[in-house]
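Exam revision sheet. Question 4 asks you to relate a sequence to its structure. Input first:
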Amino acid sequence: MSARILDGTAVAGRIRAELAPRVAAFAARAGRPPGLGIVLVGDDPASEIYVRSKLKSAGEAGLRADLERLPATCSLGDLLGVVDRLNRSDAHDGILVQSPLPAAMGPEAERRVFDAVDPAKDVDGFHPINVGRLVQNRPALVACTPSGIIEMLERERIPIAGASAVVIGRSDIVGKPMALLLLHRHATVTICHSKTRDLAGVASRADILVSAIGRPGFVTREFVRPGAVVVDVGITSISDRETVERMFPPGTKRWETFEKRGALTVGDVHPNVAEVAGALTPVPGGVGPLTIVMLLRNTLAAAEARAGGVG
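Answer key, structure tokens:
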């Protein structure tokens, strides 16, 4: 068996095409484009890449996207001041504070910042009010990665109702909202984590397996029931030759790419899973593009709601 590849880039492209007339209609009626404010603290290389991609995608979609930069040495109070200003801005419908924040801000910094964002502008879906709405299945703005995965599953006609779904990872950003979205679509959901006994055994009973733990190649074919749908949320850059060889033997295309670049972007799922899975998301080109397009859709939805349904 060779797994069907679930092309996140293609699905994201279809969603972008659907958003275009809504963005144009909003701009025509409101006299301005939907606006997104992105806050970046410090100079983390991965965050720089993510933010550039979001700014580029927003601009191409016809949104206004403004970047607020703060030095890594800024205080939590400085950051909260920027969030407050964006909350009060008429030009910005969505606010995104790029994580992770500098460790010097303290262990509670991200939670305090997410709590400070106006729930109506919380396009990441992290505010406790929006999370509470999701728990009660009356969501407004939902975390982008899990909602993007649901869009892909539904558009690829993968049955969710009645399916056994396993989510590996219990983060507030992916694992928990992913489980809730699956549950609301009538899947029977199990959440696994570092303390789960016989993790491979539990995972191998899933019809839909979602991995979001950030451990390269951790999910091997032993985790996967033959024919299962496997969604790989993990994205890690690896430069260790031994790890690359464990996942991609010399002579393969990915190995050749590593030899040229000295690093590879990989997911949680080992390539040998393709031998048993029925469908599989690639890394890159799977979940990543869906996350960004759902950010754009959330920003447009927030703009329409703030304008009383304009668009």
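Marking note for examiners. The longest helix spans residues 8-30.
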